[in-house]
Amino acid sequence: MHDWTLDYITLGAYLIAVTVIGTLAARKVTSTSTFFMGERKFGKWMMTLFTFGTGTSTDQAVTTVAKTYTVGASGIWYQWLWIFATPVYWLLAPLFRRMRAVTTADYLHARYNQSVAVLFAIVGVLSLSVQIGVMLKACGAMVTSVTAGAVSEGLAIYGMTVLFVIYGVAGGLTAAVITDFIQGILTVVLSFLILPFALQAVGGLGELRILIDDPSFFDLISDASGTERLGLFYVIVIFVNGLIGWVTTPHSMQMCGAGRTDQEARVGLVGGMLLKRFCTIAWVLTALCGVGLYMNTTMHEDLVWGTMARDLLPTIAPGLVGLFIASVLAAVMSSCDAFMVSSAALFTENIYRPLIRPNRSEKHYVLVGRLTALAVVAGGIGLAFELPSVVDGLELVWIVQAMMGVSMWFSFFWRRATAAAAWASTLAGFATWFLTSTIEVAGVVIWDFNGRFAHLLPANMTVEGALSLPWQMLIYLSVAAVVMVVVSLLTRPPAEDKLDSIYATLRTPVASDEPEVPPLTLPEGVQPAPRDPLIDLPGLEIMKPSRSGVAGFLACSALVASLIWFFAWILG
């Protein structure tokens, strides 16, 4: 019989400490800028662990382990789908920081109009609520499996939610960054805690290959016909969809905008993402060990990681299960708190302040932000109990995020992109997704694309009689892009003077002592950086990258290549 005393002490100490530390940050909240952006004062180390903590959560680890458990090592692409975007992050981070905005909707308001900002805020709040629900679902499954059902999924979800809501609602982004620094360290511990014991249990990777007896299970890229293995086409399309969707991820502005300057934003974003990619290797190797340990059972894939922790850690030392559960909660809380603040910022700054109650006090808007955060979390809790699996939830997040991505990317580089086209592109993307899906409401199927048309499609477009996810993504992204171009050309272009001001702001670096200014404006006395186009064609705004931009891009590319080679070497 396992003695839980030391585990409870470890877990209790962590929960009390992180809640107290986060809540103390509430004393510094005096304005919406402090609550939503933490006064943009954080350096490279804080930004790196904040980005890692915000961008890494238990649902991602559970999803990667679950997918690897069912399809093999190629399951790593369920998190590595963004690995090729890492060098692009080096170029994108300064762009977001130079917007000098609180939310991405602030940028869309300036670039298009207020209606597009409201559309983004609505889609963003829904997306964040879905993400919170997926993370809570993963946490509940993990804690239930670790405790062998002693703690139910519902109790785990409600208990953890109460804690991150307490300090997140009180302290805003400042509390999120401070607690994420601690929780980021614990997430690294979580990623590697089980692996050495799991490898020992199966006798190492060599013995594991004998146990599984399927060489393709260890392929990094698998094109096995008629299976759900993640082949090259799958990986490429998922990556493209992920890169398009990343720019519309609401918390991307916080991950870049909370840094002091462009460089803090760059180093924090890329450093946090590279750390996450490294931890993903540990998740996949742990899952492969799980296949060897439980290959003769009928365990649900969402429960694999937690079951391994329950079976292996108590045999090593007392208190390790408590540390594992604390790390699980850290990984979820570090993302949920940031998502909660991002959603509150979207509603408060882009819907409530301009459209419902303008010209009220900062105290009033902070209160509204806190109430919005509670509502979004409540929606996430409801969704957590409805999702069939964590993998299904993650795929839903990918799809929703990408819907406004096309209009966002066009806004960066094409002056002709219009607000009407942004609306049309987004709605066309959603419509195409719905039309190529099976829609079920309250247990009643109201539209079944696969039942009607899947048998008419080429075999390489379907998996188990349904349109495959990458083909569905390719279709709705193509439709959204075509609609964006056509509608932009058919509608009145934006005012040139407005565009000149916006693009001048995006070109101009942020100084370390720069005061807070309205979104998409430069501080008084700051001269905009000169326009130096890479492609000098009418209507395009593609600037030459700086030397530091090129050097960083190449260095990030080399690091990504080294990481992929390292994992392939381990598998080989």
Question: Can you tell me about this structure?
Answer:
Helix content is 69%, strand content 2%. With 572 residues, it is mostly helical. A two-stranded antiparallel ribbon has the order 1-2. Strands 3-4 form a two-stranded antiparallel sheet. It starts with a helix and ends with a helix. The relative contact order is 0.17.
For the sheet with most strands, the description reads: 2 strands, antiparallel
Spatial strand order of the main sheet:
1-2
What is the average per-residue confidence, as pLDDT, rounded to a whole number? 81
**Stretches where pLDDT falls below 50 for ≥5 residues?**
34-38, 224-228
Shape: globular
**Total strand segments:** 4
Distance between the termini: 39 Å
Order of helices and strands: HHHHHHHHHHHHHHHHHHHHEEHEEHHH
Give the DSSP E fraction (strand runs of 2 or more residues). under 5%
Number of helices: 24
Give the helix/strand class: mainly alpha
Kindly report the oligomeric state of this protein: single chain
Rg value: 23 Å
Percentage of residues in helical conformation: 55-70%
